[in-house]
Amino acid sequence: MSVATDDLVPERDERYQIRIRRLEKTFGGIHHVLRGVNLDIERGKINIIIGGSGQGKSVLMKHLMGLLKPDTGHIWIDGEDVVPLDDYQLNRVRKKFGMLFQYAALFDSLTVEENVAFPLVEHTRKSKAEIKSIVQHRLQEVGLKNVEKKYPAEISGGMRKRVGLARALVLEPEILLYDEPTTGLDPIATKNVDDMIRDISRETGVTSVVISHDMASTFRIGDRISMLFEGRIVESGGPDEILGSKHEFLRTFIETSGTVRMR
Amino acid sequence: MSDAETASKQPSPGWWGRVVEVNDQLWKTPTRVVEIIGEHIQLLSRAIFWLVKPPFRWAVFIESLEFIGVQSLMIVTLIGTFVGMVFALQLTSALRQFGTESFVGATLGIALSRELAPVFTSIVVAARAGAGMATELGSMRITEQIDALATMAVNPVQYLVTPRILAATIMVPLLSMLFNCVGMLGGYGVAVWLQNVDRGAFVENARWIVETKDVVQGLLKATVFGSALSLISCYQGFHAQGGAKGVGIGTTRAVVGSFVAILVLDYFLTDVILTLQKK
Predict the structure, then answer these.
(1) What is the per-residue pLDDT across B101-124, written as a single tens digit (0 to 9) for each?
(2) B183 close to B112: Cβ distance less than 8 angstroms
(3) Which of B3, B145, B153 sits opposite A107 (nearest CB)?
(4) pTM here?
(5) A122 vs B150: CB contact, 8 Å cut-off?
(6) What does the pLDDT look like over B46-60, one tens digit per residue?
(7) A207-212 and A175-179 as β-strands: parallel, antiparallel, unpaired?
(8) Per the omega criterion (within 30 degrees of 0), is the bond before B13 cis?
């Protein structure tokens, strides 16, 4: 088991697609959410960040996309520090990412088809016919049929997540971010989403970063699990290593879930 | 040690600490006002920056023109007509006492073109379209749709704010011109048909006294008010937080803030324009 080193500028290592060092973020001068996060995200693997509610998991993910700027610290994506980049430069980096939001964040003024087509319309010069065909293929890939003309409000929460995933996948990103992908889903829908995340990772080799407090899902699909506690990564490693951890809060956190037993 | 424990072990502030605390409290509101004005200017600068960066969002722009302009036609026509009518009624009643009711058309024309049309039109648009924009963007913010745009490498300011501000800046003066026309027609109807003011005197005095510069002054104000109300509405929508309640608060602030901005800007713009006209 290893927590990422605290060196300010880590050496380039191709195993890691994202490297975060000494990341700090305070809101309103009082809420010190991130207190020096050091984290390495392995290329092509499913990296899961676990932690309690309000521990800063979503804040950490928003930093990866450049939606939030840290007070101090660095984030290297493929060796490029993205913290100093402005909005215009960040757009170039963001094209490497696809993101599935907690509640899918579909545009409710657009149909399912238009939602999935949105990134293609924005960033490619494909014809309408080509886009339509890609959208249909992506929707089938996530197990959806005959929903193209429906609006997000007309489909279920689980289906919205699938549409969100199809939209995240449509530009074939190098990195996929999932913000609590199984929250609010029933056990069968949860397993389906887990299977999809694993299949997509295996088939495309995409680097996946999943934020979760669903322990069953975490240990079902995670290649590497990191625990965010009090604004820092306190443990990081493979599922077996995490199950053998001596960190008191981590053990309580996992055991309380009742789905996984610590060693 | 947790933050709570640390805080409990800190020494209680002495008289100097209390002075600092009172001073902080006194400056809190003015500081926040300056901050908010600064954030509005920042948002406007970003909207202008993204206006010149391709691609221009034609679809959203045309949709905004339709929402702000076309959908406001009926309400502006209705309000413009009645404002012209009631103003003509009051003017006829007041000026008749001095036997100068022939100047009803001229006075109405000046009042409409310089003040009533731009201010009333902007208030109507702020209440209708401004509230709509704040609610729409606020809902998008709390359901993470704005973040989703950014993650798809689409700048939210360029996509959502720039077209709306541009559309309002173009549409509010056009609606204001419509307000002028229907206001004059409403005033004409009341003064000439109902109050028996001489038709020739109404029209000729209006043509003689109301100058192009009066109309231009009003349109210029309407342009500034259009930008201001859309900027304030977009800002409030963009900064909504805390669920449905937050969207409601943002919408209320957008409408109240727009009204205040329109009336405050009106005074200062009038002062500047009149000073320039004197030179």
Answers:
(1) 889 999 999 999 999 999 999 999
(2) yes
(3) B145
(4) 0.84
(5) no
(6) 999 999 888 888 999
(7) parallel
(8) no
